[in-house]
Amino acid sequence: MKPLDTVLVHTDKGQETYLNLTSDYLYWENNGRLYSYHTDEVLGGKFQDNSLSIVVYRKSRFRFFKFSCENGTHFENSLSSTLNPCYKFFLIVYNPISGTGTSKAELFNTFLPVLSLTPHRYEVYQTTSQGYPIPLIERIGSEFTDVIILGGDGTLHLLLSALYKRNRQSLKEIGIAVLASGSRNSLAVELHGKSFNEGIYNILKNCTVLGDLMLVKTDEDSLLATTAVTCGLGADLPYEAEKNRNLGLFRFALAGVKALIMPWKHYFCSFKCEKSDGEEFERIGEFLWISIGNNKAQNLRNDEIPFPYAYINSGDMDAVLIDPIYKLMTTRLFFQILNGGQHVNNPAITYIKLKKAEIKFEQCSVFNIDGEMHFSKKVEVEILEKALKYYGKLESFN
Ligand SMILES: Nc1ncnc2c1ncn2[C@@H]1O[C@H](COP(=O)(O)OP(=O)(O)OP(=O)(O)O)[C@@H](O)[C@H]1O
Protein backbone atom coordinates (compact mmCIF):
# COMPACT_ATOMS: atom_id res chain seq x y z
CA MET A 1 0.00 0.00 0.00
CA LYS A 2 1.29 3.48 -0.90
CA PRO A 3 2.20 5.47 2.26
CA LEU A 4 0.06 8.49 3.18
CA ASP A 5 3.24 10.21 4.33
CA THR A 6 6.97 9.53 4.50
CA VAL A 7 9.78 11.35 6.26
CA LEU A 8 13.56 11.00 6.12
CA VAL A 9 15.00 10.52 9.64
CA HIS A 10 18.23 9.40 11.34
CA THR A 11 18.29 6.81 14.12
CA ASP A 12 20.22 7.42 17.35
CA LYS A 13 23.14 5.52 15.71
CA GLY A 14 23.10 8.03 12.81
CA GLN A 15 21.63 5.63 10.24
CA GLU A 16 19.35 7.08 7.62
CA THR A 17 15.88 5.61 7.16
CA TYR A 18 12.35 6.57 6.14
CA LEU A 19 9.36 6.49 8.46
CA ASN A 20 6.29 5.47 6.47
CA LEU A 21 2.69 5.95 7.49
CA THR A 22 -0.26 4.22 5.80
CA SER A 23 -3.84 4.29 7.03
CA ASP A 24 -3.11 1.01 8.90
CA TYR A 25 0.60 0.89 9.69
CA LEU A 26 3.62 2.91 10.77
CA TYR A 27 6.83 1.21 9.64
CA TRP A 28 10.53 1.75 9.06
CA GLU A 29 13.70 -0.25 8.59
CA ASN A 30 16.72 -0.14 10.85
CA ASN A 31 19.83 -2.33 10.66
CA GLY A 32 18.12 -4.67 8.22
CA ARG A 33 15.16 -5.12 10.58
CA LEU A 34 11.61 -4.03 9.77
CA TYR A 35 9.75 -2.22 12.56
CA SER A 36 6.03 -2.29 11.88
CA TYR A 37 3.23 -1.15 14.19
CA HIS A 38 -0.47 -1.25 13.41
CA THR A 39 -2.08 2.15 13.95
CA ASP A 40 -4.08 0.51 16.79
CA GLU A 41 -0.70 0.16 18.58
CA VAL A 42 0.58 3.67 17.85
CA LEU A 43 -0.41 6.17 20.55
CA GLY A 44 1.29 9.34 19.33
CA GLY A 45 4.23 11.15 17.85
CA LYS A 46 5.67 14.64 18.16
CA PHE A 47 8.25 16.74 16.27
CA GLN A 48 10.24 19.12 18.46
CA ASP A 49 13.81 20.51 18.40
CA ASN A 50 14.77 18.49 15.30
CA SER A 51 13.58 15.26 16.92
CA LEU A 52 10.62 13.10 16.00
CA SER A 53 9.46 10.98 18.96
CA ILE A 54 6.98 8.12 18.63
CA VAL A 55 5.23 6.07 21.35
CA VAL A 56 3.68 2.66 20.71
CA TYR A 57 1.91 0.11 22.95
CA ARG A 58 2.43 -3.63 22.59
CA LYS A 59 2.07 -6.51 25.07
CA SER A 60 1.00 -4.14 27.88
CA ARG A 61 4.17 -2.01 27.57
CA PHE A 62 4.96 1.38 26.09
CA ARG A 63 7.91 1.71 23.74
CA PHE A 64 9.44 5.07 22.81
CA PHE A 65 11.43 5.75 19.61
CA LYS A 66 13.37 8.93 18.94
CA PHE A 67 14.74 9.99 15.53
CA SER A 68 16.53 13.13 14.46
CA CYS A 69 14.92 14.82 11.52
CA GLU A 70 15.03 18.21 9.80
CA ASN A 71 11.37 18.81 9.32
CA GLY A 72 8.87 16.42 10.84
CA THR A 73 5.93 18.83 11.24
CA HIS A 74 4.05 17.50 8.22
CA PHE A 75 4.59 13.89 9.33
CA GLU A 76 3.47 14.72 12.90
CA ASN A 77 0.26 16.25 11.51
CA SER A 78 -0.40 13.24 9.26
CA LEU A 79 0.14 10.91 12.22
CA SER A 80 -2.16 12.96 14.50
CA SER A 81 -4.97 13.10 12.00
CA THR A 82 -4.69 9.35 11.38
CA LEU A 83 -4.67 8.53 15.10
CA ASN A 84 -6.67 11.20 16.94
CA PRO A 85 -9.62 12.54 15.05
CA CYS A 86 -10.98 14.38 18.16
CA TYR A 87 -8.79 16.39 20.50
CA LYS A 88 -9.38 16.38 24.25
CA PHE A 89 -8.68 18.73 27.13
CA PHE A 90 -8.12 16.42 30.10
CA LEU A 91 -8.41 17.39 33.74
CA ILE A 92 -6.00 14.98 35.42
CA VAL A 93 -6.73 14.57 39.12
CA TYR A 94 -4.32 12.71 41.36
CA ASN A 95 -4.75 11.83 45.00
CA PRO A 96 -1.33 11.81 46.73
CA ILE A 97 -2.48 9.60 49.61
CA SER A 98 -4.62 6.98 47.86
CA GLY A 99 -3.42 3.39 47.84
CA THR A 100 0.26 3.23 48.64
CA GLY A 101 0.87 6.86 47.64
CA THR A 102 2.21 6.08 44.16
CA SER A 103 -0.19 8.17 42.05
CA LYS A 104 2.15 11.16 41.61
CA ALA A 105 5.05 8.97 40.47
CA GLU A 106 2.77 7.00 38.12
CA LEU A 107 1.44 10.24 36.67
CA PHE A 108 4.79 11.90 36.04
CA ASN A 109 6.84 8.79 35.19
CA THR A 110 4.38 6.72 33.20
CA PHE A 111 1.32 8.64 31.99
CA LEU A 112 2.60 12.12 31.14
CA PRO A 113 5.56 10.95 29.00
CA VAL A 114 3.02 9.11 26.81
CA LEU A 115 0.37 11.85 26.87
CA SER A 116 2.89 14.54 25.96
CA LEU A 117 3.45 12.83 22.60
CA THR A 118 -0.24 13.21 21.68
CA PRO A 119 -2.00 16.39 20.56
CA HIS A 120 -4.31 16.40 23.61
CA ARG A 121 -4.11 19.21 26.18
CA TYR A 122 -4.21 18.65 29.94
CA GLU A 123 -4.13 20.32 33.33
CA VAL A 124 -3.06 18.54 36.52
CA TYR A 125 -4.84 18.94 39.88
CA GLN A 126 -3.66 17.44 43.18
CA THR A 127 -6.54 16.62 45.56
CA THR A 128 -6.76 17.81 49.15
CA SER A 129 -8.72 16.41 52.08
CA GLN A 130 -11.07 19.43 51.76
CA GLY A 131 -12.95 18.24 48.64
CA TYR A 132 -12.90 19.85 45.20
CA PRO A 133 -12.85 23.65 44.71
CA ILE A 134 -16.10 24.91 43.12
CA PRO A 135 -14.33 26.89 40.32
CA LEU A 136 -12.61 23.68 39.20
CA ILE A 137 -15.89 21.72 39.26
CA GLU A 138 -17.51 24.48 37.16
CA ARG A 139 -14.84 24.22 34.44
CA ILE A 140 -15.64 20.53 33.84
CA GLY A 141 -17.71 20.12 30.68
CA SER A 142 -17.34 23.74 29.56
CA GLU A 143 -13.51 23.60 29.36
CA PHE A 144 -12.38 20.10 30.27
CA THR A 145 -13.79 17.47 27.94
CA ASP A 146 -12.74 14.58 30.18
CA VAL A 147 -11.55 13.83 33.70
CA ILE A 148 -8.83 11.29 34.44
CA ILE A 149 -8.48 10.16 38.05
CA LEU A 150 -5.29 8.70 39.48
CA GLY A 151 -6.57 7.56 42.83
CA GLY A 152 -9.06 5.15 44.30
CA ASP A 153 -12.82 4.71 44.02
CA GLY A 154 -13.26 7.30 46.79
CA THR A 155 -11.52 10.05 44.81
CA LEU A 156 -13.92 9.49 41.91
CA HIS A 157 -16.96 9.22 44.20
CA LEU A 158 -16.18 12.65 45.71
CA LEU A 159 -15.70 14.20 42.27
CA LEU A 160 -18.94 12.74 40.84
CA SER A 161 -20.90 13.81 43.92
CA ALA A 162 -19.52 17.36 43.59
CA LEU A 163 -20.51 17.38 39.89
CA TYR A 164 -24.00 16.11 40.80
CA LYS A 165 -24.44 19.07 43.15
CA ARG A 166 -22.69 21.86 41.25
CA ASN A 167 -22.47 20.94 37.56
CA ARG A 168 -24.96 18.14 36.83
CA GLN A 169 -25.20 18.91 33.12
CA SER A 170 -21.51 18.07 32.65
CA LEU A 171 -22.15 14.41 33.59
CA LYS A 172 -23.90 13.98 30.23
CA GLU A 173 -21.02 15.52 28.31
CA ILE A 174 -17.74 14.34 29.73
CA GLY A 175 -15.78 11.09 29.71
CA ILE A 176 -14.39 9.68 32.98
CA ALA A 177 -11.32 7.51 33.35
CA VAL A 178 -9.72 5.96 36.41
CA LEU A 179 -6.10 4.85 36.36
CA ALA A 180 -5.65 2.50 39.27
CA SER A 181 -3.59 3.96 42.07
CA GLY A 182 -5.89 3.44 45.06
CA SER A 183 -6.32 0.59 47.52
CA ARG A 184 -9.12 -1.37 45.83
CA ASN A 185 -9.83 0.47 42.56
CA SER A 186 -12.87 -1.66 41.76
CA LEU A 187 -14.02 0.53 38.88
CA ALA A 188 -10.59 0.60 37.25
CA VAL A 189 -10.38 -3.21 37.47
CA GLU A 190 -13.87 -3.50 35.93
CA LEU A 191 -12.86 -1.30 33.00
CA HIS A 192 -9.16 -1.96 32.39
CA GLY A 193 -8.37 -5.23 34.19
CA LYS A 194 -5.52 -5.00 36.68
CA SER A 195 -3.23 -3.05 34.37
CA PHE A 196 -2.45 0.65 34.80
CA ASN A 197 -1.03 0.77 31.25
CA GLU A 198 -4.18 -0.75 29.73
CA GLY A 199 -6.11 2.19 31.24
CA ILE A 200 -3.80 4.67 29.48
CA TYR A 201 -4.26 2.77 26.22
CA ASN A 202 -8.07 2.82 26.58
CA ILE A 203 -8.04 6.59 27.15
CA LEU A 204 -5.75 7.41 24.24
CA LYS A 205 -7.56 5.03 21.88
CA ASN A 206 -10.91 6.47 22.93
CA CYS A 207 -12.36 3.12 24.08
CA THR A 208 -15.52 4.03 25.99
CA VAL A 209 -18.47 2.29 27.66
CA LEU A 210 -21.75 3.97 28.54
CA GLY A 211 -22.30 2.73 32.08
CA ASP A 212 -24.55 3.08 35.11
CA LEU A 213 -24.24 5.18 38.24
CA MET A 214 -25.83 4.74 41.65
CA LEU A 215 -27.71 7.71 43.09
CA VAL A 216 -27.45 7.43 46.87
CA LYS A 217 -29.59 9.57 49.17
CA THR A 218 -28.55 9.73 52.82
CA ASP A 219 -30.45 11.70 55.51
CA GLU A 220 -28.65 14.88 54.51
CA ASP A 221 -27.00 14.41 51.17
CA SER A 222 -27.36 13.15 47.59
CA LEU A 223 -24.30 11.36 46.26
CA LEU A 224 -23.16 9.46 43.20
CA ALA A 225 -21.36 6.14 43.47
CA THR A 226 -19.87 3.84 40.86
CA THR A 227 -19.13 0.73 42.89
CA ALA A 228 -20.85 -0.19 46.17
CA VAL A 229 -22.91 0.92 49.14
CA THR A 230 -22.32 -1.22 52.22
CA CYS A 231 -23.47 -1.30 55.83
CA GLY A 232 -22.99 -3.58 58.81
CA LEU A 233 -19.60 -5.27 59.21
CA GLY A 234 -18.67 -4.22 55.64
CA ALA A 235 -18.80 -0.58 56.77
CA ASP A 236 -17.50 -1.01 60.33
CA LEU A 237 -14.32 -2.83 59.20
CA PRO A 238 -13.14 -0.18 56.70
CA TYR A 239 -14.20 2.56 59.14
CA GLU A 240 -11.85 1.03 61.72
CA ALA A 241 -9.17 0.51 59.06
CA GLU A 242 -9.28 4.20 57.99
CA LYS A 243 -8.23 5.20 61.52
CA ASN A 244 -4.88 3.50 60.76
CA ARG A 245 -4.36 4.76 57.22
CA ASN A 246 -0.70 5.38 58.04
CA LEU A 247 -0.23 1.58 58.15
CA GLY A 248 -0.92 1.34 54.40
CA LEU A 249 -2.72 -1.74 53.12
CA PHE A 250 -1.88 -3.61 56.36
CA ARG A 251 -4.67 -1.52 57.97
CA PHE A 252 -7.35 -3.82 56.45
CA ALA A 253 -5.75 -7.02 57.84
CA LEU A 254 -5.39 -5.39 61.26
CA ALA A 255 -9.05 -4.31 61.30
CA GLY A 256 -10.06 -7.89 60.33
CA VAL A 257 -8.03 -9.46 63.11
CA LYS A 258 -9.35 -6.92 65.62
CA ALA A 259 -12.96 -7.71 64.61
CA LEU A 260 -12.33 -11.43 65.21
CA ILE A 261 -10.92 -10.76 68.69
CA MET A 262 -13.57 -8.25 69.82
CA PRO A 263 -17.16 -9.26 70.81
CA TRP A 264 -19.09 -10.16 67.64
CA LYS A 265 -21.88 -7.87 66.49
CA HIS A 266 -25.02 -8.19 64.36
CA TYR A 267 -26.90 -5.23 62.89
CA PHE A 268 -30.65 -4.65 63.10
CA CYS A 269 -32.18 -2.81 60.13
CA SER A 270 -34.81 -3.01 57.40
CA PHE A 271 -33.96 -3.70 53.77
CA LYS A 272 -36.56 -2.98 51.08
CA CYS A 273 -36.06 -3.12 47.33
CA GLU A 274 -37.66 -3.18 43.91
CA LYS A 275 -36.14 -6.18 42.15
CA SER A 276 -35.17 -6.10 38.47
CA ASP A 277 -38.25 -8.22 37.61
CA GLY A 278 -40.51 -5.59 39.26
CA GLU A 279 -41.23 -7.65 42.40
CA GLU A 280 -41.04 -5.97 45.83
CA PHE A 281 -38.78 -7.53 48.51
CA GLU A 282 -38.59 -6.61 52.19
CA ARG A 283 -36.75 -8.03 55.16
CA ILE A 284 -36.56 -6.60 58.66
CA GLY A 285 -34.24 -8.08 61.26
CA GLU A 286 -30.61 -8.80 62.02
CA PHE A 287 -27.95 -8.93 59.32
CA LEU A 288 -24.19 -9.27 59.38
CA TRP A 289 -23.65 -7.22 56.27
CA ILE A 290 -25.57 -5.68 53.36
CA SER A 291 -23.88 -4.55 50.14
CA ILE A 292 -25.38 -3.12 46.97
CA GLY A 293 -23.00 -3.12 44.00
CA ASN A 294 -22.87 -1.63 40.53
CA ASN A 295 -19.93 -3.66 39.23
CA LYS A 296 -18.06 -6.80 40.30
CA ALA A 297 -16.11 -4.77 42.89
CA GLN A 298 -12.91 -6.70 42.27
CA ASN A 299 -9.63 -5.24 43.42
CA LEU A 300 -6.05 -4.95 42.25
CA ARG A 301 -4.50 -7.36 44.68
CA ASN A 302 -6.43 -10.66 44.93
CA ASP A 303 -9.24 -12.76 43.40
CA GLU A 304 -12.04 -11.32 45.52
CA ILE A 305 -15.35 -10.91 43.62
CA PRO A 306 -18.15 -9.60 45.86
CA PHE A 307 -20.74 -9.28 43.03
CA PRO A 308 -19.89 -11.97 40.45
CA TYR A 309 -22.97 -11.29 38.28
CA ALA A 310 -22.71 -7.47 38.16
CA TYR A 311 -21.71 -5.31 35.20
CA ILE A 312 -21.23 -1.55 35.12
CA ASN A 313 -23.58 -1.31 32.12
CA SER A 314 -26.22 -3.91 33.10
CA GLY A 315 -28.93 -1.38 34.02
CA ASP A 316 -29.38 -2.93 37.47
CA MET A 317 -27.57 -3.38 40.78
CA ASP A 318 -26.69 -6.55 42.70
CA ALA A 319 -27.37 -6.83 46.43
CA VAL A 320 -25.68 -9.30 48.76
CA LEU A 321 -27.47 -9.76 52.09
CA ILE A 322 -25.55 -11.76 54.68
CA ASP A 323 -27.53 -13.40 57.50
CA PRO A 324 -26.43 -12.83 61.12
CA ILE A 325 -23.80 -15.60 61.16
CA TYR A 326 -20.95 -16.03 63.65
CA LYS A 327 -17.15 -15.76 63.42
CA LEU A 328 -16.25 -19.19 62.06
CA MET A 329 -18.89 -19.14 59.32
CA THR A 330 -17.94 -15.54 58.47
CA THR A 331 -14.29 -16.53 58.06
CA ARG A 332 -15.36 -19.31 55.66
CA LEU A 333 -17.57 -16.85 53.77
CA PHE A 334 -14.67 -14.37 53.40
CA PHE A 335 -12.52 -17.11 51.85
CA GLN A 336 -15.34 -17.90 49.42
CA ILE A 337 -15.59 -14.21 48.39
CA LEU A 338 -11.80 -14.17 47.96
CA ASN A 339 -11.97 -17.34 45.92
CA GLY A 340 -13.57 -15.79 42.83
CA GLY A 341 -17.01 -15.08 44.33
CA GLN A 342 -18.00 -18.60 45.47
CA HIS A 343 -20.03 -17.13 48.34
CA VAL A 344 -23.11 -16.80 46.13
CA ASN A 345 -23.93 -20.47 46.88
CA ASN A 346 -23.46 -20.07 50.65
CA PRO A 347 -26.84 -20.58 52.46
CA ALA A 348 -26.21 -17.44 54.55
CA ILE A 349 -26.34 -15.29 51.39
CA THR A 350 -29.30 -13.78 49.58
CA TYR A 351 -28.25 -12.43 46.17
CA ILE A 352 -30.75 -10.09 44.47
CA LYS A 353 -30.76 -8.09 41.23
CA LEU A 354 -32.54 -4.80 41.77
CA LYS A 355 -33.29 -1.29 40.54
CA LYS A 356 -33.92 0.55 43.83
CA ALA A 357 -33.34 -0.14 47.49
CA GLU A 358 -33.72 1.39 50.93
CA ILE A 359 -31.78 0.45 54.06
CA LYS A 360 -33.03 1.87 57.35
CA PHE A 361 -31.50 1.65 60.83
CA GLU A 362 -33.05 2.73 64.13
CA GLN A 363 -30.09 5.01 64.83
CA CYS A 364 -27.44 6.84 62.84
CA SER A 365 -25.08 4.23 61.35
CA VAL A 366 -21.98 4.11 59.21
CA PHE A 367 -22.36 3.47 55.46
CA ASN A 368 -19.40 2.72 53.24
CA ILE A 369 -20.06 4.40 49.89
CA ASP A 370 -17.28 3.63 47.37
CA GLY A 371 -14.85 3.37 50.28
CA GLU A 372 -15.85 6.72 51.85
CA MET A 373 -17.58 6.70 55.24
CA HIS A 374 -20.96 8.46 55.55
CA PHE A 375 -23.28 8.58 58.58
CA SER A 376 -27.04 8.30 58.25
CA LYS A 377 -30.08 6.47 59.63
CA LYS A 378 -31.31 5.63 56.15
CA VAL A 379 -30.00 5.39 52.61
CA GLU A 380 -31.96 5.12 49.38
CA VAL A 381 -30.10 3.77 46.36
CA GLU A 382 -31.31 3.98 42.77
CA ILE A 383 -29.70 2.94 39.52
CA LEU A 384 -29.15 5.65 36.89
CA GLU A 385 -28.88 3.66 33.69
CA LYS A 386 -26.20 4.51 31.14
CA ALA A 387 -25.62 7.80 32.90
CA LEU A 388 -21.88 8.23 32.32
CA LYS A 389 -19.28 7.67 29.61
CA TYR A 390 -16.44 5.66 31.15
CA TYR A 391 -13.13 4.98 29.43
CA GLY A 392 -12.51 1.24 29.28
CA LYS A 393 -13.57 -2.07 27.78
CA LEU A 394 -15.83 -4.66 29.33
CA GLU A 395 -15.53 -7.65 27.04
CA SER A 396 -11.95 -8.57 27.92
CA PHE A 397 -12.43 -8.85 31.63
CA ASN A 398 -16.00 -9.98 32.35
N1 LIG B 1 -4.06 15.64 49.84
C1 LIG B 1 -4.80 14.84 50.62
N2 LIG B 1 -4.48 14.65 51.92
C2 LIG B 1 -5.21 13.85 52.74
N3 LIG B 1 -6.32 13.19 52.32
C3 LIG B 1 -6.70 13.33 51.04
C4 LIG B 1 -5.96 14.16 50.12
N4 LIG B 1 -6.57 14.11 48.92
C5 LIG B 1 -7.66 13.30 49.06
N5 LIG B 1 -7.73 12.84 50.32
C6 LIG B 1 -8.72 11.87 50.85
O1 LIG B 1 -8.52 10.63 50.20
C7 LIG B 1 -9.76 9.87 50.27
C8 LIG B 1 -10.00 9.14 48.98
O2 LIG B 1 -8.99 8.18 48.81
P1 LIG B 1 -9.31 6.99 47.81
O3 LIG B 1 -10.57 6.33 48.20
O4 LIG B 1 -9.24 7.48 46.43
O5 LIG B 1 -8.10 6.02 48.04
P2 LIG B 1 -8.12 4.54 48.61
O6 LIG B 1 -9.03 4.47 49.78
O7 LIG B 1 -6.68 4.18 48.82
O8 LIG B 1 -8.65 3.71 47.38
P3 LIG B 1 -10.01 2.85 47.14
O9 LIG B 1 -11.19 3.75 47.35
O10 LIG B 1 -9.88 2.35 45.74
O11 LIG B 1 -9.97 1.72 48.14
C9 LIG B 1 -10.85 10.89 50.55
O12 LIG B 1 -11.35 10.65 51.83
C10 LIG B 1 -10.15 12.27 50.50
O13 LIG B 1 -10.68 13.18 51.43
Number of helices: 9
Bound molecules: adenosine-5'-triphosphate
Number of domains: 3
Distance between the termini: 37 Å
Strand content: 35-45%
Which consecutive residue ranges, at least 5 long each, have pLDDT under 50?
none
Tell me which CATH architecture of the largest domain applies here. Answer: Sandwich
Order of helices and strands: EEEEEEEHEHEHEHEHHEEEHHEEEEHEE
**Main pleated sheet:** 13 strands, mixed
The beta-strand count equals: 20
| Mean pLDDT rating | 95
Q: What is Rg? A: 24 Å
The percent of residues in helical segments reads 10-25%
Structural category is alpha+beta
Tell the overall outline. elongated
CATH topology of the largest domain: Tumour Suppressor Smad4
User: Which CATH class of the largest domain applies here?
Assistant: Mainly Beta
Protein name: DAGKc domain-containing protein
InterPro entries: ATP-NAD_kinase_N, Diacylglycerol_kinase_cat_dom, Lipid_Phosphate_FormReg, NAD/diacylglycerol_kinase_sf
Organism: Stentor coeruleus
GO molecular function: lipid kinase activity
